[in-house]
Amino acid sequence: MKYSTICLDLDGTLLYNKNDVSDFTVSVLSQLRSKIQILLVSARMPIGMTYIQKKLGILNEPIVCYNGSLIKHGPRTIFSSTIDIAHVKDVHRIIQKYDAYIGLYHQNEWYVPGLNAFVRYEIFCTRTHPAYQKTEMTIRYLENKNVGPHKMMVMIGKKKEATLYKALHSEVGSFLQIYRSGEELLELTNRSVSKLSAIKILLQDDQTLENAMAFGDNHNDIDMLKGVGYGLAMANAPKEVKDAADQIIGTNTRDGVAHFLKNLYENDVTSPENRTVEN
Question: Are 252 and 234 in contact (CB under 8 A)?
Fold first, then answer.
């Protein structure tokens, strides 16, 4: 099968540490970018992705943000699906019982009620910075603009995560997609969107999902891995993600994606120096 598109998750997949790609990965993908379309498909906000795009030399390609809720091509918005403010208020009401924090994202705006360990970690990983204000104020601000968030991120301790996950599924799961992102984070988007639905939007007239391969490591990648022509899970992925893939490759910290692509396209990729350092 000849693949025309490579769909790449970032955190835990393409990034060899928490916020960057290795020189080896840059070298491999730079040799392939003129022969095959390379799409970044992530839960991140746009500005948390474009610095990686720039490093890979693929700023000419669209990006899939917020698990498929937003598709950007440079400054242009190709697709946007925001959460109804009424549903935002429902989630905010529910999490009050669990001592959880909530982050709201719209385009390149990120709002949190304050700085804590969760927020510091997100700042480090994505190289982005939030605005700080009470969640009630952010909801009013978005409501006055007549927009909703593209993504909600709920930050909660490990002991309460499973209970809150069940509560959210029970009350808002019929209209919101709820993904586990690690042991302390839950990501919420509209139920109608996913990474796979975004990839379908970006397919050209002469392309099908069978012509695409995808790489991922987390629960929000499962539909994508199942839906494309060839899905690859990282060795560091949970069992449910591995079960959804056609093949399991190396870990992100060992540049599993780049090594797989170098071997697959051995006639197109020379042997760059591998400078990855295990963290």
Answer: yes
Buried-state track 246-274, b at ≥16 Cβ within 10 A, e below 16: eeebebbbbbbbbbbbbeeeeeebeebeb
What secondary structure letter does DSSP report for 50?
Answer: H
Domains and CATH numbers, the chain: 5-80+193-264 (3.40.50.1000), 85-190 (3.30.1240.10)
Task: Tell me the two tokens of residue 167.
Answer: 């509560």
Residue appearing with tokens 């709002």: 111
DSSP code, position 63 = E
CA distance 223 to 234: 15
Beta bridge partner(s), residue 44: none
Cβ atoms of 18 and 127 within 8 Å: the answer is: no
Q: What is the pLDDT of residues 71-107, one digit of tens each?
A: 999 999 999 999 999 999 999 999 998 989 999 999 9
